[in-house]
Design goal:
With 291 residues, the chain is α+β, with helices and mostly antiparallel strands. It has a single domain, classed as endopeptidase domain like (from Nostoc punctiforme) (endopeptidase fold (from Nostoc punctiforme), Alpha-Beta Complex), CATH 3.90.1720.10. The strands form 4 sheets. The chain has a 6-stranded antiparallel β-sheet with strand order 6-14-7-8-10-13. The chain has a 3-stranded antiparallel β-sheet with strand order 1-2-9, with no helix packed on it. A 3-stranded antiparallel β-sheet has the order 3-4-5. The N and C termini lie far apart (59 Å).
Amino acid sequence: MGSPELDLTRRSLMIAAASAAFAPVSWGRTAGERTFTAASGYGVEFHHPADELIGDLLATERGDPRMQASIPHREWFSERVRREYGAWGPGPRHYPIAAAAEGKSAAWRRERAIAVALRFVGYGYQHHHIPDWDPSAEWPWKETCAGRNGKGVDCSNFTGFVYNQGFGIRPNTAIGRQAERLEVEVGPEGRPHRLTRVELPEDHEGKVRALRSGDLLFIRGKPGGEVTHVVLWVGPIGRSATGLPLILDSHGGDVKDDEGRPIPCGVQLRPFRERSWYDRCASHAHRVFAG
């Protein structure tokens, strides 16, 4: 039997190798770009070009990773942050209302939500408040499938951050509260915004028909149990070789792609297969933009 240190090294190497196969794709860097394709072959085809959907994130401080937190970047790894926030790291800033989304249709806004989220594909699953907080190995760490400290975010902090950065809409990032609260704050001034709760049919096809791109789909830990997970529904703009519907979430590495390869833990496009955990344990959804 190998030593614990050697086993940990092997595990880290296996995680690194698997993650490399699903490394983040530079999305939105080409003007007019409308498609995103991951190494799994799963992808998204938008009706609008990337520079229209997320151009402000690529060209302004809104998309600057150093501006994600409620405290200055120079303080992210300070002793005060270690004492006050521990393994979670600094909390997110409350972004202002996005001028780029003002006056746009609900369909456009739903596509923007997915486009914003795709920028974090390849990030690890971490119990962090913000995606780009990247503490050292010596920093306190809540163990996850990522195998080590690093950039990343968990499921409800991921969905909350996407709508916060994308629109200034800030859902509560505690999974239980995110699943139940229908009124959220918009912008630092706290303007209220009402979400729409979507009840889901029991059958797989009924769920697919009921959901729309950008919906927050809540998943129970087991049938009839408490909600423990949340995903972004990609919807009809998703592309898979087998025609499977896709979701986008930060999750463990126990889902396989169409070739049977394990999809690494963290932020990835994943299939919504019939009778999968996602399908069997789907609870309900929140629609951020009705219409």
